Amino acid sequence: MIDNAQLTTHFAIIVAGGSGSRMKSDVPKQFLLLNGKPILQHTIERFLEVLPASQLILVLPAKEQAIWEDLCQEHDFHPSIQTANGGATRFQSVRNGLITITVSEGLVAVHDGVRPFISPEIIQNSFETAARTGSAVTCVPVKDSVRVVGANGVSQAVDRSQYRLVQTPQTFQLTSFRQAFQVEEQSFFTDCASVMEYAGFPITLIEGAYENIKITTPEDLKPGFL
Ligand SMILES: Nc1ccn([C@@H]2O[C@H](COP(=O)(O)OP(=O)(O)OP(=O)(O)O)[C@@H](O)[C@H]2O)c(=O)n1
Ligand SMILES: C[C@](O)(CO)[C@H](O)COP(=O)(O)O
């Protein structure tokens, strides 16, 4: 758990405002059940081991908030968490969550609602590292061989030791994060680190975990796979 004195300055935005098009399910994937509980509930519970509910912001699809309310009733899950509306892109969802934070200084972690296996230790480490260096971006080394494919279709092996697979949480100083999110959205913004980098802020990497997967496509939920 974060030190009591820091509780009012440490925030986490859990982004669950997407539609989950690659999952091809009837409801957005963050609401699907995993071991009897909504994926999003697992994720929030991991964060509640580190931060109180008052420091969390949950970004939900504007049109599907009733689904989440029904699931919370059904699963008797009632943490008092502020919500914000999702935007058309992840960048816009993060920005919608960010404007609900009114304190001027502190730290903010952004985490995908569909990464339910995040450990409290990684969350904790991301806050500690961001407090020291200004940022903490979770990642893991690449386990497979990697090839780059040129425009002509010809591929070439690359040195995988030079690459990292990026996960969340991604945690930053609030002041620089706010400044970074004032930029015009770019098509290459796939995460918060790319936004911070575009705005000129340095990125510190921290060790993630291979089990901290992002549930993205149906294979990620196949029985026996998880
Ligand atoms: N407009 C968006 C898009 C994504 N997200 C969130 O960002 C996380 C990672 O995004 P991704 O896995 O791509 O989710 P979706 O956008 O929902 O999926 P897809 O790209 O397959 O449509 C998810 O928790 C998702 O809900 C969000 O809050 N708002
Ligand atoms: C933020 C992220 O999960 C880091 O790996 C990823 O970039 C999200 O990408 P997506 O295309 O929105 O799933």
UniProtKB/TrEMBL annotation:
Reactions the enzyme catalyzes: 2-C-methyl-D-erythritol 4-phosphate + CTP + H(+) = 4-CDP-2-C-methyl-D-erythritol + diphosphate
Site (Positions MEP for the nucleophilic attack): residue numbering on this chain: R160, K214
Site (Transition state stabilizer): R22, K29
CDD domains membership: CDP-ME_synthetase
EC class name: transferase
Gene behind this protein: ispD
EC code: 2.7.7.60
Signal peptide: none
Family affiliation: Belongs to the IspD/TarI cytidylyltransferase family. IspD subfamily.
Taxon lineage: Bacteria, Pseudomonadati, Bacteroidota, Cytophagia, Cytophagales
Keyword terms of this UniProt record: Isoprene biosynthesis, Nucleotidyltransferase, Transferase
Gene Ontology biological-process annotations: isopentenyl diphosphate biosynthetic process, methylerythritol 4-phosphate pathway
Organism listed in the record: Spirosoma foliorum
Any one GO molecular-function label of the UniProt entry: 2-C-methyl-D-erythritol 4-phosphate cytidylyltransferase activity
Protein name as catalogued: 2-C-methyl-D-erythritol 4-phosphate cytidylyltransferase
InterPro entries on file: IspD, IspD/TarI, IspD/TarI_cytidylyltransf_bact, Nucleotide-diphossugar_trans
Function: Catalyzes the formation of 4-diphosphocytidyl-2-C-methyl-D-erythritol from CTP and 2-C-methyl-D-erythritol 4-phosphate (MEP).
Entry keyword annotation includes Nucleotidyltransferase: yes
Pathway connected to this protein: Isoprenoid biosynthesis; isopentenyl diphosphate biosynthesis via DXP pathway; isopentenyl diphosphate from 1-deoxy-D-xylulose 5-phosphate: step 2/6
Segments traversing the membrane: none
